[in-house]
Amino acid sequence: MQGKVPFVLAFLLLISSCAMISTYDTQRQPEDMIILDRTSVSFQIEKAVYAADRQTYYIWEADSQFIHIIRAGRRINKIGGMGFDKSNFNRLSDICIGADGNLYTLDSFSKTVKKFDHNGQWLREYSLDTLQEPILMDIGRNELFYIFDNIQREIVVLDIEHEEEQFRFGKFQLSRPKQLTNTRNYLLIWDAEENSTMVYDTFGQLLQQKEGFFQIERGNFFQLGSHKISDEGSGKTFLATPKRYHTFLIKNSVGVLTTENDVIVFGISYE
Question: Which CATH superfamily is domain 2-270 in?
Answer without folding.
Answer: TolB, C-terminal domain (2.120.10.30)
